[in-house]
Design brief:
The protein is an alpha/beta fold and 263 residues long. Helices cover 34% and strands 27% of the residues. Helix 2 crosses helix 3 and helix 5 runs parallel beside helix 7.
Length: 263
Amino acid sequence: MTNVLKLGGGKGVEHGAPLRNLAERVSGGERWVLVHGASDSANTLGEQLGHPPQLITSPGGHVSRYNDARTIDIYAMATAAVNQALVAELCGYGTKAVGLGGPAIVRAERKAAIRAIRDGRQVVIRDDYSGKISGVDAALLNALLDAGFMPVVAPLALGAEGERLNVDGDLVAATIAKALGAESLVILSNVPGLLRDVSDPASLIGGFGLGQVPAYESVAGGRMKKKLLAAQEAAVGRFIMADSRIERPLDAALAGGGTHITR
């Protein structure tokens, strides 16, 4: 049975411990696909290149990156660098990891217009290079897994006109998990899971059923809204949001740590 790990790309997300833990599980015979983010690296690179990131908020409260043409170039550079670094580290642990630029396997439809809230008013943005995921190449992923390789997927997609599109990494992981019929999707980030109070780790919500997701949307703020959306999209037996910053975080998550959403 295949599992999917999404390793967040935000500031403060630990990579070393999750990758070591992942490599151990793969060496034990488990099949995993790794999807990664790159938001903090892209932010840093954008600042260095004089094109800092801009965030937009949808009327529904979802926060995302504004992707003009220059930002997509920067984001592509950042995701490539992160992808290569993750593959190199995994190979160093003895894992047969292979890096995949998102456009190689992820397809998306470019959003013709995006509605956003600016200065309290709703506006329409038409020059954004972001997309709605339309599918993934499950055959290629399965071929790699069957050959003993672990795919490492970057969060970019290919549009209908051959353009690169920024797509949400959590939703990439969810789409892959659904396409592969994965048993579990684990998202490791810089928070313990879904919290009732974002300033209080003790307010962690341990778990609930997939059908209860709408009841918890009011608790989810910022990026957590996308994670709940990813849980609904993946519809896997076990969807876990957990902390990357502890020792053996993947083992801890699968043993009950974090927030579990079960089908």
